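Posting this for the archive.
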Amino acid sequence: MPAELRGAPVAFAERTFRSRRLGLVAKVDRVYRTTSSIVLVEFKTRRQIAARMTDIIEMSVQRLALAEETGLSVATIAWVVVQHARSGKRAAVRVPLL
């Protein structure tokens, strides 16, 4: 878990959000509440510890749907926590959202 989110409460987990205005549906893995906003975290298992453009697109859609449905301020920075498929090692990769 990223150091900046340690101790932050979970606001939402495994929940679906909708943007009726944009026609989007997105399911979040975790959303943490910080003092200034809420932050998206996506969990992946891969052979390489890396975030992909598809992660950024997925989480950007989550951001739009979450913000519209809840009215909350969602951070433009998110985290992809990647677990290596063989070693089990985990690392958090910070990503900018669109």
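The chain is about 20% helix and 45% strand. Helices lie at 53-70.
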